[in-house]
Amino acid sequence: MVISPDIIPPESFNSAKDAVAQVTKIYDAHIAFLQEQFQNYVDGKVEKTRIRAFYPYARIATKLARREDTRLSYGFAPRPGTYSTTLTRPDIFDHYYEQQFKNLLSNHDVPIEVGVSTTPIPVHFALGEGFHLEGDLSDDQLKDLVDMFDVPDLDIMDDEIANATYVPKPDEDEPLALFTGPRVDLSLQRLKHYCGMPANHFQNYVIFTNYQFYIDEFIKIGMEHANKDGFGEFVQPMNPDRLPQMPAYHLTREGGAGVTMVNIGVGPSNAKTITDHIAVLRPHAWLMLGHCAGLRNSQNLGDYVLAHGYLREDHILDADLPPSIPIPALAEIQQALEQAVGEICGFEGYDVKKVMRTGTVATTDDRNWELRSSIGQNKRLSQSRAIAMDMESGTIAANGFRFRVPYGTLLCVSDKPLHGQLKLPGMANTFYRHRVDQHLQIGLRTMELLRDLDPKKLHSRKLRSFNEVAFQ
Fold this sequence. Notes:
The chain is an alpha/beta fold and 472 residues long.
């Protein structure tokens, strides 16, 4: 026997707003049902029976593959057929869903069907990011939980759609979005765990860094601008004395147009982890601001490196996006970064080259790469024409490419190990004092420039394949 919420029949809509309202109605009803039943279970008021609720879905069926504006990279079905996806958390994604529905209605002029899917909502996700399910249950209740409620199923939470390896079964709909409801819910839970706060605080413009110095400066700026100059509140982890693994800080703006900054720590594994999860929020851009080893003797400590290519030797994404796949530079991001460097540093045109070099960044998974044999290593770096080495940028750019999130990298040279200038404590401290504030100002100015662009212009066609999902 299975107990489920009252049936809500599918309906079709020619209004994006009405379609989102129906998604919200279904989601709220099913979440409320699970929460009530779980509380009854905690209180010992339910018999052993299956309790199940489901995600809402959105579906379109089109006989034509078309789009009103061929410059756009999303918002349309790639070919005639039926497309669907499960949806979650309209409290976070209502504006996003409405915009995607508007695109579909505009391009295809067919109604959007909204109904109850056959994909169960795991009880863990129904209880929210702040709830620790195991804390309220006895050992016997924990053992019986999986027999009564649905729990997360990793078989339906993979990234096959984003990786372009998903093949629908016969008579199964094509995917409408990169991420299903369960996959999104998993990432929302993980963001709370890694970053120390609910995902609804995240903004559409995200800066990653690997040094606390940058965060310290961002906190000063955030507190100075909070509730002024068009910004809203400045949100930071509640317990500064016990920070999460990758703390996030948010200078908010209406419509999510503010800036989020995350200290991801060191290494490609952290870089992949955080971008895997922030990607479900569908940000308009993310940037890496960090330090790097300069590989050319002509570089000075404190010079900037604008990555236009990546030698990916991080290996963390090899199974999902092989290193042979090129990661292109995105013109809008590159232009904004270069303009911001010029403005903040006081240079124009060709003179920007005095403080910034554009080229290939090599990303490694070995923090002590300097200890490898220089014969083989230097040959490869020379052949690639790499001008800098770091541990995160290639991963962040590659995951941006993989998840269709516009990306960019601006690094600052903090040492030159191939030329006898190692990152030793005294040198590092002097460097940090002189460069962190300027570097962060460049990143924030870049985000201002990108915010002034229509997001449609940011989401480049370079990020989309010939057989893409319709959602941005």
